[in-house]
Amino acid sequence: MSLNLELEMQVVANDIDEQITTIKKQRFDFRTIKNVLAISMAFLLQFTAFNGMGNLQSSLNTEANVGVNSLSIIYVFLIFSSIFLPHPLMTILGLKWTLIISQVPYLIFMTANYYPKAYLMYPAAVLVGLAAAPLWTSKCSYLSNMGTVYAIEKNLDKTAVINRFFGIFFMFFQSCQIWGNLISYLILTPENKLSSVSAARINTSTSILFTMYDKCGAQFSEQEYQSTEVPNKIDRKTVDILCIIYVCLCISSILLLIIFLDQRRTTSRDKTSVMIRNSVKLLVSTIKHMRHMDQILLIPMSIWCGLELTYIFTIFTKAFISCTFSAKYVGLIMIAFGLCDSIGSFVFGQLVKLIGRWPCFVIAALINYALMITMLFWYPSSNQIIVLFIIAGLWGVADSVWQSQTSALYGVLFNETNEAAFSNYRLWESAGFAFFYIITPYIRTRIILYILIVFLTVGISGYALIEYRWKKYEEEKLKTTNNIQVASSLSTKNSRF
To answer: How would you class 35 by CB atoms within 10 Å of its CB: exposed for 0-12, middle for 13-18, buried for 19 or more?
Structure first.
């Protein structure tokens, strides 16, 4: 009797242990999914606001060119931030609070747009530039660390799990261009200045003289545009409403991370001297990495990645969209860019497995060449809005290749020195951003398109040399392997005799 009782108690104890184990596994799965979704939603909310407002800087904040200048400041300070700030902040604050603290400057920048004066916008831009690198680095570290832990716990392939987590993240993130631009299109309303001028002409006998800007497209000049009467200027009240909406999105993003994201640390707290030493070490390794021939050949294409994004976000939106219609249509047309960029990222991610990397780069280059030549000779008009949608969409398709496959190329070429390699990539891409933001207010769009063609040509030529060098390396490696195998087989035969 007592033996049966002991057996029953053992069975009950085993059942309880299994239930506890199941509950722990369910909690672990829930916490993992919760953290992935928390980061994904937070970035979606924040960059819906930031990208939506960033696309409008060249069209809305034109006084003293404060909008474009602010964007150039962001990328100048991003260069410094990429080298010195991520490691110390992640060590001191942990990944969760690095993410949260790094989001605060974006909120400040959104708030500054409510009253876009240089003394508010420029300091806010400096803070965003300093926060950007820690934000993205901590995000990558969080997802990679969490994917590694989850793979070990579930006995799964680590690479597959990390890729899945990043896939979920970018599924959310890539759509931010769509939602941010859609919000701006629905909220912004023109002043209808032309109609009021016409009414004044009818009601008064005094003739009103004003000049209209008629050099949209390749002949566009920011300085000339500012000295003329601009039709359909956006009502400032609707801009203020848009700023309030974007500020609320940034606040929601921060609160989402505070409430739902778990803390993680990739390293223990280091002493200040150790953190400084690591940052200086990264700076030195980044500089030394420029001695590699492949890195030298990749510099023009890395700069091109920054230039082409600056062009579509700042110059195309001003010279082709705002000039022809109004800033209200920037959001509507740029939805095509965001949608095609998202779809292209997925399609080319699959296509590169089938046809290889270089055909994808060639497709992107041909698309960009065709679009740039079109914009050099085509004059935009109000009855051809569909052409602007096509240009924005195709540019998004090409951008999906440049942004995803260039990063992948760095990872393949510099697998053993990827930290220094990606620091170089961020450095030269940021240099491209800053260069165009600084010079675009002072030159015509035609000159900008010529600069883009030059950088694309030099960049794709450098990439072709890299592929040639890589192919020769693989052939030499295969030849060496075959020679070793032949020598090994001959020595085996000789030993038999």
So the answer is: buried
Q: What is the CA radius of gyration of the chain?
A: 27
Residue found under tokens 């928390």: 38
Please, are residues 70 and 128 in contact by the beta-carbon 8 Å criterion?
no
The CA distance from 26 to 38, in Å, is: 18
Q: Helix, strand, coil % (nearest 5) of the chain?
A: 85, 0, 15
**How far is residue 440 from each of residues 212, 214, 307, 435, measured CA to CA in Å?**
21, 19, 11, 8
Measured distance between the N- and C-terminal CA atoms of the chain, rounded to whole angstroms: 76
pLDDT of residue 205: 37
pLDDT at 283: 66
Ramachandran assignment for 415, one of left (phi > 0), alpha (psi -120 to 50 degrees), beta (any other): alpha
Please write the tens of the pLDDT for every residue from 77-114: 887 887 777 777 877 888 889 899 999 999 999 999 98
The answer to pTM > 0.85 is no
Residues 6+ apart with CB under 8 A from 352: 360, 405, 408
**In degrees rounded to 5, what are phi and psi of residue 269?**
-65, 120
* Least trusted range by pLDDT, from 40-54, 183-197, 225-239: 183-197
Question: Which amino acid belongs to residue 96?
Answer: K
Contact by Cβ (8 Å): 322, 388: no
At 25, the amino acid letter reads K
Distances in Å between the Cα of 255 and the Cα atoms of 31, 134, 146, 171, 249 are: 17, 19, 21, 21, 10
Q: Which residues of 246-261 are buried (b: 16+ CB within 10 A; e: fewer)?
A: bbebbbebbebbeeeb
- d(CA 297, CA 292) in angstroms, rounded, equals 9
Cβ contact 352:94 at 8 Å: no
Apex 375 CA angle, 373 and 380, nearest 5: 150
Measured distance CA(174)–CA(399) in Å, rounded: 12
Q: How far apart are CA 251 and CA 230, in angstroms?
A: 34
Q: What is the pLDDT of residue 19?
A: 58
How far, in Å, CA of 348 to CA of 365, rounded?
14
Token pair for 109: 């920048």
CA distance 45 to 251: 9
Residue 295: what pLDDT? Answer: 84
Give residue 319's identity as a one-letter amino acid code: A
Tokens of 101: 């603290």
C-alpha separations of 253 from 49, 102, 185 in Å: 10, 12, 22
